[in-house]
Design brief:
It is a single chain. This protein is of the alpha+beta class. It folds into two domains: about 100 residues, Topoisomerase I, Chain A, domain 4, CATH 1.10.132.20; about 70 residues, 2-Layer Sandwich (Gyrase A, domain 2), CATH 3.30.1360.40. The chain is about 60% helix and about 15% strand. It has four helices and six strands; from the N terminus they run αββββαββαα. Strands 3-4-6-5 form a four-stranded antiparallel sheet, with helices on one face. It has a two-stranded antiparallel ribbon with strand order 1-2. The radius of gyration is 22 Å and the shape is elongated. The mean pLDDT is about 85.
């Protein structure tokens, strides 16, 4: 019984990590609304150390179409501006000497479809991780059965691993459909 719990807990932990990773990836997909998350992957050279923009400046969203970046050190303005351009996130920074303003352009129909395709690919990656976790659990039960675990306990464990997979797959579907709806809403 203890072994069953250990195997299922390991599978659940792997599946939870896959879903958490998907949630994080979906946050980085821009859906036409301004969000400080658009700068998540942008790193700037801050006195020899590559740092995220959020650690060298205040990143705010004054309205649905604008992200404002206010560096704590004025000398960082051109560095941050260049980093945003180099990061190729599809936004053009405008610098007024005090802060950097990023205007979020409305998404074209083509760009929306591209983003939906991108999130579906992320979703598929998450599903593959879920299936791998289930496969590992099933293999662990088969091995445990060879090592003396009763057959009905092993079969029960495999069924529970499948139920876990179904539960997490449903969560992946919910995340994807919510994000797709957000992207396709004009």
């Amino acid at each position: 019984m203890e072994e069953t719990k250990t195997i299922l807990d390991a599978a659940q932990a792997k599946m939870q990590r896959a879903v958490d990773h998907l949630e994080e990836e979906l946050l980085n997909v821009r859906a036409g609304k301004a969000s400080p998350n658009v700068l998540n992957g942008v790193l700037v050279d801050y006195y020899g150390t590559m740092s995220p923009v959020s650690q060298v400046a205040s990143v705010t969203v004054p309205d649905a179409k604008t992200v404002l970046v206010q560096p704590w050190d004025k000398k960082m303005l051109p560095v941050i501006e260049k980093a945003i351009l180099v990061a190729n996130i599809g936004l053009t920074p405008s610098n007024n000497g005090e802060q950097i303003r990023l205007s979020i352009p409305p998404l074209t129909e083509e760009r929306r479809k591209q983003l939906v395709k991108q999130i579906k690919a992320e979703g598929e990656t998450a599903r593959v991780s879920l299936r791998n976790a289930r496969r590992d659990a099933v293999e662990a039960f088969k091995k445990a059965q060879k090592d003396g675990m009763p057959e009905d306990e092993a079969k029960d464990g495999e069924e529970r691993a499948q139920k876990l997979t179904d539960k997490f797959s449903k969560r992946v579907d919910e995340l994807l459909s919510a994000k797709e709806k957000e992207i396709m809403t004009v």
